[in-house]
From TrEMBL:
Assigned EC number: 2.7.1.33
Pathway the protein takes part in: Cofactor biosynthesis; coenzyme A biosynthesis; CoA from (R)-pantothenate: step 1/5
Family: Belongs to the type III pantothenate kinase family.
Record CDD domains: ASKHA_NBD_PanK-III
Annotated compartments: Cytoplasm
Binding site for ATP: D6, V7, G8, N9, T10, N11, I12, V13, T134
Keywords: ATP-binding, Coenzyme A biosynthesis, Cytoplasm, Kinase, Metal-binding, Nucleotide-binding, Potassium, Transferase
Cofactors: K(+); NH4(+)
GO CC terms: cytoplasm
Cofactor note: A monovalent cation. Ammonium or potassium.
Catalytic activity annotation: (R)-pantothenate + ATP = (R)-4'-phosphopantothenate + ADP + H(+)
Protein name from the UniProt record: Type III pantothenate kinase
Length: 261
C-alpha cells in the first residue's frame, strides 16, 4: 500500500492507495489540520490513528510539504516509524517529468508541480488548475505537460477571517448559497460577496488565461478545480469543467512510480 502525504498550509491530506501499477486505486483519504509546531511524534500518532489497521501495511510513501517546519518533522517521522519503507519526498532532484518554464523554477511549490503532473496525466491537453486552498492558486499547463506559470489570489478563508477581523460589524458566516445575490441581511450580504465574488474572480482570471493560451494555438484547454474549498465555488463557476478532489494525491502516486521503478 502506498501512503501519499500532502502537507499544505491549512490542512494535511493523507491518501492510501492499494494495488499495483495501472490497477492502483485510492482506497481512503483523510484530512487533518496543519500545525506548524507539531512534532514528528504527534504527526505519527495522528497518522497511525487515521490509518488504523493499515498503518503496518504501508509499503511505500510519497510526500510533499509546503510548510518547512512540518517537512522537517515529516522526515523524522518517516525515518522513525516507517524507516524501512521506500519513500519519495518531492524536492529538487526528484524526477517529476515536468518542465518548469518560468523565470525561477526554484520558486515553484512542490504542490503546483505535482498538480501539473496529475492534470496532464488525466487529460493530456493544455490545462488550467484552480486549487482552492489557503490561497487560490491558478496554474497553467501546456499541451506538452509543461508548467507555464499562473496566478495567486487570497484564499476564501483568509479573506473571510480578514474581513471579520477588520470590520467591527461583520463576522464569520456559514459559507452556503444565500437566497439571492442581493442579500437581505448582513449574513446573506457576506455570503453573496464571498461565494459569487470568488466564483467571478476565478472565472475572470481563467477566461483571460484561456485567451492567452488560445493565442498560442494551444489546442483545447481543460479547466480543473481541486483543493478543500473547491466544492463551495463549483456550482457558481461558469469556467470550471472538472472537479478532481484527489489531484495532488494522484500526482504523488505518479511521482512515486517515476522514482522507484
Amino acid at each position: 500500500m502506498l501512503l501519499a502525504v500532502d502537507v499544505g498550509n491549512t490542512n494535511i491530506v493523507l491518501g492510501l492507495y492499494a494495488g499495483d501499477g495501472t490497477d492502483t486505486t485510492l482506497l481512503r483519504d483523510w484530512r487533518m489540520r496543519t500545525d506548524a509546531r507539531m512534532t514528528a511524534d504527534e504527526l505519527a500518532l495522528t497518522t497511525r490513528g487515521l490509518l488504523g489497521e493499515h498503518a503496518d501495511k504501508i509499503t511505500g510513501v510519497s510526500a510533499l510539504s509546503t510548510v518547512p517546519s512540518v517537512l522537517r518533522e515529516l522526515r523524522v517521522m518517516l525515518g522513525r516509524y516507517w524507516g524501512d519503507v521506500p519513500r519519495v519526498i518531492v524536492q529538487p532532484g526528484v524526477r517529476t517529468g515536468v518542465p518548469l518554464l518560468v523565470d525561477n523554477p526554484k520558486e515553484v511549490g512542490a504542490d503546483r508541480v505535482i498538480n501539473t503532473l496529475a492534470a496532464h496525466h488525466l487529460f493530456d491537453t493544455a490545462c488550467v488548475v484552480v486549487d482552492f486552498g489557503t490561497s487560490t492558486n491558478i496554474d497553467v499547463i501546456s499541451a506538452k505537460g509543461e508548467f507555464l506559470g499562473g496566478a495567486f489570489a487570497p484564499g476564501i478563508e483568509i479573506s473571510v477571517d480578514a474581513l471579520a477581523t477588520r470590520a467591527a460589524q461583520l463576522r464569520k458566516v456559514e459559507l452556503v448559497r444565500p437566497r439571492s445575490v442581493i442579500g437581505k441581511n448582513t449574513v446573506e450580504c457576506l455570503q453573496s460577496g464571498i461565494l459569487y465574488g470568488f466564483a467571478s474572480q476565478v472565472d475572470g482570471l481563467v477566461r483571460r488565461i484561456v485567451a492567452e493560451l488560445e493565442a498560442t494555438d494551444s489546442g483545447p484547454v481543460t479547466v480543473i478545480a481541486t483543493g478543500g474549498l473547491a466544492p463551495l465555488v463549483l456550482a457558481e463557476s461558469s469556467t470550471i469543467q472538472h472537479h478532481v478532489s484527489d489531484l495532488t494525491l494522484l500526482g504523488l502516486k505518479l511521482v512515486y512510480e517515476r522514482n522507484t521503478r
